[in-house]
Design a protein that fits this description.
Layout: H1 4-21, H2 25-28, E1 32-43, H3 82-94, E2 98-99, E3 102-103, E4 106-109, E5 119-122, E6 129-130, E7 133-136, E8 146-157, E9 161-163, E10 172-174, E11 181-187, H4 194-210, E12 223-233, E13 244-249, H5 252-271, E14 279-284, E15 289-295, E16 305-306, E17 313-314, H6 317-326, H7 331-342, H8 346-353, H9 358-366, H10 373-391, H11 402-413, H12 419-430, H13 437-444, H14 452-465, H15 467-474, H16 480-491, H17 498-510
Parallel strand pairs: 13-14
Antiparallel strand pairs: 1-11, 1-12, 2-6, 3-17, 4-5, 4-16, 6-8, 7-8, 8-11, 9-10, 12-13, 14-15
Helix pairs in contact: 1-5, 4-5, 7-8, 8-10, 9-10, 9-11, 11-12, 14-16, 14-17, 16-17
Length: 511
């Protein structure tokens, strides 16, 4: 419980923080700098939990995917899932780190309602991987390079999901998520700005999605971010400031806002002659301020001890080499190759990389004929991704094939169908219609009307049918042209090319 004096002091401090946050980092740079390190908690794409055969589908009906070991039932024992070891190995190799020949698990003791065991099984002293890096630079919009080193990568189990406000005064627990496999990726405190931290998380998200380790969807909790922030004055040791941890940041915007707000808070404290205490804090995006959650625990507080029920994991060089050979082309190499070969911009490639399997399908489509790479890429990122989002599907779940997409885009490029018809064709294909594209086009009577004299006759008839609208246009209301374009498209059932319709309508209205 906080005293009235503490609440008032905190209110004054938050006001000072908001004022200070309006000053840019450029203005603060000569005097203050920020030191930032991140801990990412990444849910692995394994089908089963880390220490039990229960399904890892956390979004099934509540408390349906539970094993005795997940619920902490006495006498039940954890059994390590080898698929999780494989995925963690892929992650550390992709980061350029070293897989440890021997890793071991620990018990991290603490009590929360979302932790049925009374402790979390994790890796503290002997993680599965160490080292590696993410390099930020011009591709991230920076005018300099920033190398962010990886301290370690460790396997650990997730907690249950706490559900509030269903029954007043009660917190419900859904154990579906309890025991789901995570990797925690701990960076060194190498970042200096909020933008660098957000770029680092985005890079990590792209990498882990691309190699199939996780879907990294922040909105569903598959990627969660804790940020350690401290400030120091120019010329001082970057690690000299007192570190505060910001918990459970779940978007790039929130990451940026929380870091800037916390840096401003710490600077305001120091400039007013107070000290910064080591704390765990949350972030309120509405007020753009951080708030105290609890004093920061240290390692002795958790009473770490070796996990007695799980033997040490021995990983051979031969097994690591086999995992390395099974991995896809890494993002930086892929971007360079696809950009050079197809002339696409980096952001176009990265957008496609966000959907697993998209780049491979794109290249297969390009191999089916002479397609314009930018048009194909645009179709993926707009039409196809839009349909996938609408259906809550992944590309792997869809009915799409390189030949079907190639034939659809070929028909569009040859003006055999309009853009609207091509979109409708895509919908029918994704609905499961397996007929050839040419047969689908014929069955709907979808053929572009390319007879200009026929189109001119239709437009002329419509102008005569709507004399008031025609007169309105000629009196200066140019928006009436849209009225006629819509009428013509309706009369031709969408088979006329919009650009031809617009050109002829304007020509006849102005004549």
């Amino acid at each position: 419980m906080f005293s009235i004096q503490q609440i008032r002091a905190n209110s004054v401090l938050n006001s000072a923080c908001r004022t200070l946050r309006r000053r840019t980092y450029a203005a603060l740079a000569p005097k203050w700098n920020t030191t930032i390190g991140l801990e990412l908690h990444v849910q692995l794409s394994a089908k089963q939990k880390l220490f039990s055969p229960a399904s890892a589908k956390w979004d099934d009906p509540a408390n349906t995917n539970i094993d005795l070991a997940d619920a902490g039932i006495p006498g039940s024992l954890p059994r390590l899932n080898p698929e999780c070891v494989h995925l963690a190995t892929r992650a550390i190799l992709a980061l350029g780190g070293t897989v440890q020949p021997t890793s071991a698990f620990d018990r991290k003791h603490y009590f929360y309602a979302d932790q049925p065991l009374g402790y979390q099984i994790t890796q503290s002293t002997c993680p599965i991987g160490r080292g590696g890096q993410i390099e930020l630079g011009s591709a991230d919009g920076l005018s300099y390079t920033r190398r962010v080193r990886i301290h370690q990568l460790q396997l650990e189990q997730d907690t249950a999901k706490s559900i509030h406000d269903v029954y007043p005064g009660y917190v419900l627990s859904d154990l579906n998520r309890a025991g789901v496999a995570l990797v925690e990726i701990v960076s060194e405190a190498d970042m200096r700005t909020a933008d660098e931290a957000a770029h680092y998380v985005r890079r990590m998200q792209t990498l882990l999605r691309h190699i199939g380790v996780s879907n990294c969807n922040m909105e569903e909790g598959s990627l969660r971010c804790d940020v350690n922030v401290s400030v120091f004055q120019d010329g001082r040791d970057p690690l000299s400031g007192t570190r505060c941890e910001l918990k459970n940041l779940n978007s790039f915007k929130v990451i940026r806002g929380a870091i800037e707000a916390e840096a401003a808070r710490q600077i305001a404290l120091i400039e007013s002659g107070q000290t910064v205490d080591q704390e765990t804090r949350g972030y309120n995006a509405r007020t753009q301020t951080t708030f105290l959650q609890r004093s920061k625990e240290t390692a002795p507080d958790y009473r770490y001890m070796p996990e007695p029920d799980i033997p040490a994991v021995r990983i051979t060089k031969e097994w690591v080499d086999a995992v390395r050979k099974s991995m896809p082309e890494l993002p930086d190499q892929l971007i360079a190759r696809v950009s050079k070969h197809y002339g696409l911009a980096q952001d176009e490639i990265e957008t496609m990389m966000g959907e697993p399997g998209c780049i491979a399908l794109f290249e297969h489509v390009m191999a089916t004929g002479k397609h314009d790479a930018k048009r194909v890429a645009s179709w993926f990122t707009s039409e196809i991704f839009g349909q996938l989002a609408y259906r809550n599907q992944t590309l792997a779940d869809s009915q799409l094939s390189p030949q079907i997409l190639g034939d659809t885009l070929d028909a569009l490029a040859k003006d055999q169908i309009t853009s609207a018809q091509a979109k409708q064709l895509l919908i029918e294909i994704m609905d499961g219609d397996k007929r050839p594209v040419s047969e689908l086009i014929a069955s709907h009577g979808w053929r572009v009307m390319d007879d200009q004299s026929q189109l001119r006759s239709i437009i002329t008839a419509l102008l005569e049918k709507h004399p008031n609208e025609k007169a309105d246009y000629r009196a200066g209301n140019k928006r009436r042209m849209n009225f006629f374009v819509g009428k013509v498209m309706g009369a031709t059932k969408g088979q006329a090319k919009p650009q031809d319709v617009s050109r002829l309508v304007k020509e006849l209205l102005d004549s």
